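About this split. The held-out portion is used to measure sequence recovery: a designer receives only the structure tokens and must propose an amino acid at every position. Recovery is the fraction of positions where the proposal matches the reference. Here is one held-out target exactly as it appears in the evaluation file.
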């Protein structure tokens, strides 16, 4: 067990939990068996879905009947008590019993409980919510996606360093290109904070990333930039717009290819290409947002994802720990 990556899991957060969580663990373990799972939640419910599907050498259940509700405000979640599955899971990372924590529960609650339990990395003022997005050439790290509505130039510089460290943890052989999300590519475009950040990063010499200036919203998916930085307000709007556009394209394409005989024949002739296209836009493939800036890694799985999406977020946890994300950030900061 000592050489296994220890993942603390809030089994009671998100839709259809704990069944989805347990099914996701089983699915992930069938493909990668170098994790040990500390599972926090109602033991009877968890055991009902676990049964004998996972060797006991790979998990431990920590029983609690209390959990954070999806309707709780962050303050209500913190007041609900220190015996909730979310709080106990975060606390296990604080106590060094686990290497990383993941929850599909209430996002605001997870951020607050994580900040109450875990220290910030020295010289970082604010944590950021980051996630992976597909692009034409592979993947991009995007941050902040909603943890900080207002940011200073220092915050955005920190996000650049943390985002590139995350990218290097996930893709150790690549040196990322970092860009600031802005309304234009010209140096004079944007507000004063964006322009100040541009000047700092333009002068900053780093062995860990290349600074590529500004990037506009219509260039997010072209693959020229690997780390895209913005304040939480702008980043969240960009994320929701991208998700909505992807859903619109896939639903309209499905409608066009099943609406009449010609469409059905066309879909049969292009079956494998359409399957590949659908997989590329499948949000489950990119599930797992990361709170970075805290001295332990915290991962947020989408509450509405299924077992495949949760299993993929466990893979993100595995890569983050193996890639020494926290050490990379501390060194680069």
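Reference sequence for scoring:
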């Amino acid at each position: 067990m000592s050489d296994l990556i220890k993942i603390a899991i809030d089994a009671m957060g998100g839709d259809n939990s704990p069944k989805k969580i347990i099914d996701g663990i089983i699915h992930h373990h069938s493909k990668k068996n170098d994790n040990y799972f500390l599972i926090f939640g109602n033991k009877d419910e968890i055991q009902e879905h676990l049964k004998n599907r996972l060797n006991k050498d790979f998990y431990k259940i920590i029983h609690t009947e209390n959990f954070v509700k999806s309707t709780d405000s962050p303050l209500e979640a913190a007041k609900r008590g220190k015996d909730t599955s979310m709080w106990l899971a975060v606390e296990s990372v604080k106590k060094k019993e686990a290497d990383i924590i993941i929850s599909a529960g209430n996002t605001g609650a997870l951020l607050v409980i994580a900040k109450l339990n875990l220290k910030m990395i020295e010289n970082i003022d604010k944590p950021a919510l980051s996630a992976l997005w597909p692009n034409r050439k592979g993947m991009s790290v995007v941050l902040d996606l909603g943890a900080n509505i207002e940011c200073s130039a220092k915050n955005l510089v920190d996000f650049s360093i943390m985002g590139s460290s995350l990218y290097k943890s996930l893709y150790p052989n690549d040196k990322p290109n970092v860009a600031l999300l802005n309304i234009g590519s010209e140096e004079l475009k944007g507000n004063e904070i964006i322009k100040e950040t541009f000047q700092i990063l333009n002068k900053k010499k780093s062995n860990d990333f290349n600074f590529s200036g500004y990037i506009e919203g219509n260039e997010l998916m072209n693959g020229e930039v690997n780390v895209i930085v913005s304040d939480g307000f702008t980043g969240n709007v960009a994320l929701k717009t991208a998700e909505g556009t992807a859903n619109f394209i896939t639903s309209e394409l499905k409608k066009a290819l099943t609406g009449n005989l010609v469409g059905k024949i066309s879909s049969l002739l292009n079956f494998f290409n359409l399957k590949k296209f659908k997989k590329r836009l499948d949000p489950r493939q990119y599930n797992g947002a990361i709170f970075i800036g805290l001295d332990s890694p915290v991962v947020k799985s989408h509450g509405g994802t299924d077992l495949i999406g949760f299993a993929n977020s466990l893979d993100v946890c595995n890569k983050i720990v193996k890639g020494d994300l926290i050490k990379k950030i501390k060194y680069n900061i």
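Annotator remark: The chain has two domains: 1-124+293-333, 125-285.
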